[in-house]
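Record 1 of the preview.
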Amino acid sequence: MNFAIHKIGLAIAFSPTSEAMLAEAMRLTMVYQARLILIHAGDHGPKEDKLMDALIEKAGLPASFIKIRWENGNPGDVILKVCQQENIDLLIAGALRKENLVQYYIGSIARKIMRKADCSFLMITNPSTQPLPYKNIVVNAEDSPYVEEAIFAACQLGLKDKSNWVHIVREVKLYGLTMAASDQRSEVEYNEVRHHLVQEEINTVEEFLQKIPHDKLKVNIKMVSGKAGFELSQFAKRKSADLLIVGASQRRFSLFDRVFPHDLEYIFADLPCNLLVVHPDQQSGKEEHYE
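->
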């Protein structure tokens, strides 16, 4: 289990947010001491070279850290192709802002990338030309194939960024409480069952944490019940989270059908903060790079 980042890809267009997106990518490039691959899907000529050179110069990135891939074609297909060819570990892209609303969501191109990419994917909602470390990280600890990798990524980045908190959110399974209620238990017995179920879930998270370096982090284990996506999003908002982390799906399954139950679609329609989807398959064949 690891979250090694050696190559970071940035899907970049010449837009009003380009400078800020490059600054965000630069920060993470320095955090992970990675190489940055800039991916531009569109025209390439002297005009575009000049624009890109100006962006890179303003960002102050060393030329040795950067590679530029100019590609023509469908943006989603181009980005997926480059990620595979360059063995990118983390792809960064920007979220779209809903018209006339302070609300961010994942567009169709990003959704396609999330379903098919062989690397982790970071969606940035509000990029800044002076990006700050992630101080409040929320990680989804639901039962998914890669829940441990998601928690590992949260703790690793939390340590690198000297975060104030890493909040680990896990759902209390309502069917257990429903069964307890249907057995016509007394209120005291019902509360005992509820306490037992909550403690079981806390124990599961603590077992994950025993395998992960986190001694210098403040870790909060939060149990929620109800609509998982809604509760997770609301919790991230209440904690003013900088970053929400979830695990990706196994390749043979659809992202939304397998990893994100449909109630988690709420998150993608109204992102509470930056979103990192951890795809551990990125690590296959890279064990020699582990620290």
